Amino acid sequence: MRRAFNDRCLPADGRMHATTQRTRGGTPEAVTLSVIETAGARVLTGHTGAVNSVAFSPDGARLSTASEDKTARVWNAATGELLYTLAGHQDAVFAAPFSPDGSKIATVSADLTPRLWDARTGAAALELTGHTIAVFGVAFSPNSKVVATTSYDETVRLWDTATGASLHVLEGHRDIVYGAAFSRDGKLLATASGDGTTRLWDTGTGACARVLTGHTGIVSAVALSPDGALIATASFDGTARLWEVATGNCLRILNGHADTVWSIAFSPAERVVATASEDATARIWDAASGTLIRTLEGHTDSAFVVAYSPDGKLIATASSDTTVRMWESATGKCARTLEGHTGAVSSVAFSPTDRQLATASTDETARIWALLLPPGG
Fold first, then answer.
1. Which among 3, 63, 93, 269 is least surrounded, fewest beta carbons within 10 Å?
2. 6 located within any domain
3. What is the pLDDT averaged over residues 263-282?
4. pLDDT interval class at 39 (50, 70, 90)
5. How would residue 354 be classed by pLDDT, with cut points 50, 70 and 90?
6. CA-to-CA distance for 306 and 266, rounded, in angstroms?
7. How far is residue 87's CA from residue 80's CA, in Å, rounded to a whole number?
8. Strand pairing report for 188-193 and 198-202
9. For position 32, what pLDDT does the model report?
10. What percentage of the chain carries pLDDT values higher than 90?
């Protein structure tokens, strides 16, 4: 079986790779085999289940991975050395982000109990008890003093990261709460739910300030613009929406995807937003007008995740086709295809320096890729 070669989207080492077939359950499937090891990729092995997420520490020196094997791991981002394993959860770990000040790691799990860990030593610090079903999402406040957890129990909980005390239980959603995002000042929290709504909460009082209605399917992701004026939401209804934080009004409906929109992200550098979809494409939109700027095509299966580099010059998309693609945000040109994973890629994270990209996969590995940028890039 041969793969068409597109010289506009080279593999990470700039060389052609071979394609063959293997059989899974009697069904042939394409597998990309690297003839020459992909330049700059460091493979992190040791997990015994799918790796659900990756996250860099604020200084870019360490990388956390969260896995179905009930553990999270922390690695030296420069060498790939395993520094420590966060063990104690009794079920799959979905995410393990660092706090913005770098002092803590929060883990959320299907075992109902989020945990806080000392990021320097890996020592268990606090167990956060209260959720009654699997805890899926987690977000730290910008000042690291509060952590929000979202759950299948239809609630969001805010916790004091110093003591583990429950500050507020945010109730109102009528289905799973998939994700949460803090405003830059930490005073507001936006949450995305399977009930088709997004809610905006006052983190000081726990009161619901706005209910954003309009989507006709699950709200799969939520993001706040860097200036705090806009909320972006992605949905199973095949659309994304832009909302005004001050009023809760829907300003723009982003139509164009042919299937579920899984992920959404604001550029840190300009007023644009990117989306990734089950339809195997990513799209870039003007956040002011809602106009489609360009469509990023090349993946051959679902695009699960879209992320901007910290300087906004690059976009990464992760797909169930086992690849990650790197795109120039200004032109939409596919600059690199990162090949090597043998399962769906579920998470990506840029390092704070823009010099590395980390990826997580169902193949039980994470990878750290060196981004070989041109001089001045």
1. 3
2. no
3. 96
4. low
5. confident
6. 10
7. 19
8. antiparallel
9. 29
10. 86
Confidence of residue 353 (pLDDT cuts 50, 70, 90): confident
Residues 123-178 have pLDDT tens digits of 998 999 999 999 999 999 999 999 999 999 999 999 999 999 999 999 999 999 99
Residue 133, domain CATH: 2.130.10.10
What predicted TM-score, i.e. pTM, was given to this entire model? 0.89
Q: Is there a domain that residue 3 lies in?
A: no
Whether 261 and 255 have beta carbons less than 8 Å apart is answered as no
Residue 32 lies in a domain: no
pLDDT at 347: 98
Whether 69 and 49 have beta carbons less than 8 Å apart is answered as: yes
Annotate the chain with three-state secondary structure. Answer: CCCCCCCCCCECCCCCCEEEEEEECCEEEEEEECCCCCCCEEEECCCCCCEEEEEECCCCCEEEEEECCCCEEEEECCCCCEEEEECCCCCCEEECCECCCCCEEEEEECCCCCEEEECCCCCEEEECCCCCCCEEEEEECCCCCEEEEEECCCCEEEEECCCCCEEEEECCCCCCEEEEEECCCCCEEEEEECCCCEEEEECCCCCEEEEECCCCCCEEEEEECCCCCEEEEEECCCCEEEEECCCCCEEEEECCCCCCEEEEEECCCCCEEEEEECCCCEEEEECCCCCEEEEECCCCCCEEEEEECCCCCEEEEEECCCCEEEEECCCCCEEEEECCCCCCEEEEEECCCCCEEEEEECCCCEEEEECCCCCCC
Q: Which of 33-37, 96-100, 260-264, 365-369 has the lowest mean pLDDT?
A: 33-37
- Domain holding 210, by residue range, is 42-370
Separation of alpha carbons 114 and 136, rounded Å? 9
How many domains are contained in the chain? 1
Contacts of 190 (CB under 8 A, 6+ apart): 180, 181, 183, 198, 199, 200, 201, 222, 224, 231
Q: Is residue 14 part of a domain?
A: no
